[in-house]
Amino acid sequence: MRVRKKKIIAAIAVAAGVFGFAGALPTSAFADTTIDIEGQTNISGTVPEDVSNALNHIHQTNGQIKQDLDTAKQHAEDLHQQAHDDANDIRQHNEQAWQDAQQTHDDIKGAVDHAHDRLQDTHDTLHQDAQNTQKHLDQIHQNIKNDHD
Fold first, then answer.
1. If you average pLDDT over every residue of the chain, what do you get?
2. What residue range is the signal peptide (predicted)?
């Protein structure tokens, strides 16, 4: 509200200053004009044509600036949304990678445990076979000794 009042006061001051100098200009240099400020306040009256053109140019430039600001705002909102979407994609990718890593860890641990169990079974079997073989050899040795005596 404060900025709007300052703009209106500035426009009135320009118009009043121009009217003070208007007496020295021919009437062909004046134009009836209506300037719409902020889409709500109208200033109308007879002002020198170059001032009218300047005010119209300022009004058009203001409109272009507002349009550029709206475009920049939309672009910033689009970038923000894209950054948000990218962050969600990265978060989901990281979660999936973590789950995959956990699954791979569990698979490797399972494979190592299974290999360990098989090695232990093989060791136990070989140890039992060695004991059985030793018993058998001891028996053969005893038999030969008994036969020799």
1. 80
2. 1-31
